[in-house]
What we know:
Elements: H1 17-29, H2 44-56, E1 60-64, H3 67-77, E2 85-89, H4 95-102, E3 106-110, H5 120-129, E4 134-138, H6 147-157, E5 160-164, E6 172-173, E7 176-177, E8 184-188, E9 201-205, H7 208-217, H8 239-242, H9 252-263, H10 265-283, E10 290-291, E11 298-299, E12 304-308, H11 314-325, E13 332-333, H12 358-365, E14 367-371, H13 378-397
Helix pairs in contact: 1-9, 2-9, 3-4, 3-7, 5-6, 10-13, 11-13
Amino acid sequence: MTERFEKSFTRQEPIPEAGIEAAVRVMREGRLHRYNTAPGEAGEVALLEEEFAAATGARYCLAVASGGYAMGCALRAVGVRPGDRVLSNGFTLAPVPGAIASVGAEPVFVEVTEDLVIDLDDLAAKAAGSGARVLLLSHMRGHICDMDRLMAICDAAGVTVIEDCAHTMGAAWRGVPSGRHGLAGCYSTQTYKHINSGEGGLIVSDDADFMARAILGSGSYMLYGRHRAAPPAEAFETARWVTPNVSGRMDNLRAAILRPQLADLPRQRDRWNALYRAMEAGLSDTPGLRLIPRPEAETYVGSSFQFLLPGWRGDAVQEAVARCAGRGVELKWFGAAEPVAFTSRYDSWRYAPPQRLPRTDRVLAGLLDLRLPLTFTSEDCALIARIIRAEVGAVWQAGAV
């Protein structure tokens, strides 16, 4: 009998009971706006910021409406202006170049490697020759590059690094949390991320002037004194007169949902990584399939899984995807000419100037991706791997690649 996978790849775990209780309490009070607090009361958003700053080791934290807003807010706070060029990965998702375009800037895409991280040689060349002074670095699908070398390249070229950590909350490089290498780290709490409020974002930094501009820009209405994980009042003195309000605050309801999840993140990371390892074990040594190596220096959170079918023709990749889908396994292919759902590639973002990334093209042509929600078990992942192994193997053995 042919095995089939029956679970949904988009079904998340329920919100913890502690989060539900906190959210109900906020709704009963009716004070959802982050600044609608009683005298002496911190409010859920301010407490979340304080707790997230502590979790990442950052001095300051700001909670906002989405991960995409967090990146745009950070770019404005660092001084990116219309017409500026901003470096970013050629392999990422649309909100990253979208954040660059939202401030009127121009994305300059950097090649990615077969290990799905930014190509540091290409970065060095473009940091020196593009005129860009900011890198919006995407740790796409949770893969972290050699951050020591990246920071050395950017520091030497005078390039400020903002990290997109939508897929790396709870991850680290050589023990340093993701988001803590550059000037700022931006995180997402969208449903498919590591803590879930439907939508939401967080920004961390140790730079007082940067964070003062970010807080003002997010719509603090001169109520920045109510923030707890924030710079001292003097950091706001000049910026408060010249920083536009582009409102994008998080509300107390979402923060209430998030706080218990943040406290549980280390345990959840261990659960995700058990699923990831089950996938690795099941697909190891599959003919025609390449797994993505994880460096020893990287602490990862395996909430999704990627592999390559290197050198395969597009129609052969599509056949393997279709065969897996017929058995209930949903694979996302980043090599399609047209964007599908959450997959797209740099030549789909036609608000950016046309650019050629031949190495990235080769990688994306064979790149497949799937979610690993915590509603799955290790046994589920072993079944998924058996199905992929069988269907990829069938196409491979037929010589259709």
